[in-house]
Structures are given as structure tokens and as C-alpha cells.
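User: Outer membrane protein beta-barrel domain-containing protein. Structure?
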Amino acid sequence: MKKKILWFVIMISTPLCCIAQDWHVGATAGISNYSGDLSEKRVDFGYTRPMIGLFVKKDINRYLTLRAGGTFGMVAANDRTNASIALQSRNLSFSSPIWEGHLGAELNFFDIDEKGFTPYLFGGVALFSFYPTAKDSLGNKIRLRRLSTEGQGLPQYPERGNQYSLYQVSIPFGAGFKYLFTDRLTLGFEIGLRATFTDYLDDVSTTYVDQNTLLAERGQLAVDYAYRGDEPGTKGIPGTYPLDGTQRGSAKNKDWYTFTGLTIMYRLGGGSDGRRSTNFSKCFKM
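Assistant: Predicted structure:
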């Protein structure tokens, strides 16, 4: 009878013992970047901004890891640093916070407990929020979305639809490297790209709308921030507000953002050596 009870206790405890050794919690810190209508280069490192995040991971087996987490970063760009005279003359700029929650999976190349390290690939899905702003001459933040700089939500431009949503889905993917620093601590480095489904991360996408219409519907501030090429100190060729339909951005490609950083991860649970156990005898030293 005692043997049966012992066997029953072992059977229900084994999953908890093994599972605990497969969970990790960690943090990341690094940089964030943006690619879109205000970035002439694929990535303009001149506008690199900070990024931090927290995550939890679960090892399914030696090569597959599930992951979830939250990340905060900033993205920004400015036409003044572009090489194109036309873009300098447009003189637009923006910055935006990025709050992201993500779910995904990692494909590990090696068993990290055997090799002590492994490169990996990852992919998943994320929900993120953003809010593009610009600064006036005094350094005050101007919220761009509510200005309808490209006619969003205006009855005269029904093809532009309503205001763009500040909550969007992105597809995170990339690669990283993990190093088993101790039995419980893992250090790493990761590069993650985020493909989005919005072209308004920077509040720029299509064409200019009629100046007088924008003035009547949204006021002078909207006109001022729809086109900034007439501001004092504009690089390139100072101009006047463009005609209705003149190209302002390009809707051909959606905006992207990237997170790159160092990671530190702590393994929960574990036996005397703190390492992952995948069979009954390793979970219980009997």
C-alpha cells in the first residue's frame, strides 16, 4: 500500500518537477529603430532610441522554446538628415513610443545544456500601440493623429477612411544567440524586426490634401504640420504648401520597427545542478 501511495505521489509530482526546470524569466535592454516614409535609408541609426523589456520562456524540448513578453521602445526620424533635397524641403519629423506585447517561438540550433550556447531563430505575433508626435519651435509635443494631416476622417476625402488606429498588429521575427553563463543564468543577444500593417507609424503615407479644406476642418495647426517646408531654418529649398494630391509619402510599403538588445534570463526550479530534466530519474534523485 505504501509503495502504491509513493508511486502515486511521484507520478503527480513528476510533471511539476520537470516543468519548473523548463521555465525562464528575463529582461532585455538595447536600442529601437524605425523604417518608413521619413527614413531615406532602410534604417537610420542616427535616430536610434532606447528599448527595454521583460519576458518569460518555456522550453518545450531541446530545440523548441515558447516565449511571451512586453517591450517598450521609442522610434523617431527627421527629414533634415535625409540626403534628398526634396525630402529636406518637406521638413517633416516625428517620434513615437512603442508599447508591445508579443507571443512567439524560438527554434534553437543546439541543446544549450550540452553545448553551453546556441544560436536561434524566432517568430511570432505582437500587438503594439503608438502615437506619433512632432515638436514645435519651443519644444512642445504636437500630437499628429488628431490633426488629420492627410485628410483622415474628413468628409471631403472619404477614400482616406477614418483616423488610423493607434493599436496595431505586427509580425516579430529575427535571430539571436544564447550563452549558458551559469546553471541558472543565460546571457544573450537578439535582433528582432517587426513588420507592421500600418503606414502611419510616422503619420505619413499618401498625398497632401487641400490646404483650405484642412484649415476649415482642423485649423491652422493641422496645416502647419501637414507641410513644414516653409518653416524658418528649413534645409533644401523653402517652398509653399503643395497642391491637393501632391505626393507626401508612399503607401506602397508599410512601416517597420526593430528591437535589438542584450538579454539576461533566469531558469526557475531545477535539481541540484539547476538544469533541465527530461526524464523521470533526473527529476527525482532516488
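The radius of gyration is 25 Å. Residues 73 and 267 are 26 Å apart (CA to CA).
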